[in-house]
Amino acid sequence: MIKKIVTGTLVLVILSASSTIIYANTDENKEVKLEVEDNKEVVQLKEEIINLISPKISPLDEVIQEKDDLLISVQILTDSTVTISVYRQLEDDEELIFEEEDIKKEDLLFDTYNKELKDIEPGDYKIEFRKDDEEEPFKTIEFKIKKELPDLSDKSITDLLLGK
Known about the structure:
By secondary structure, this protein is mainly β. The protein has helices at about 1-20, 155-160, and strands at about 30-35, 40-45, 50-55, 60-65, 70-75, 80-90, 95-105, 110-115, 125-130, 140-145.
């Protein structure tokens, strides 16, 4: 009887632990020291302005895509105007892919900005975010796009012939 209770408890613990998702915070520089008075440090947290929803970037700074389109989805968290620019990084230079666009929170539905870029080729890319017409970007995201061929094992012969 006790053996069944212990076994059931262990199974329950294992099942509940396997469905746990842990998110790591990669922003190491979240705190800013303001001043030091009498050996007391006053610390203020940086204000988060945006939350990048898409593209999903792997820990290796890679985005795997099956199509030639790239969806950029950004949630604006403050009332300030955010300017977004997308660049393709070449060996010696940068190529502006997406002209700078000002994003205002009050103009968005659900505070989320979505932009789909067409005909994106594999390579190195950079997204820059600027706040309120500032010269320096407050956030720069660099990533590499890799093309992934679709897995043909799940498709039937009719899907292949029809191009689905």
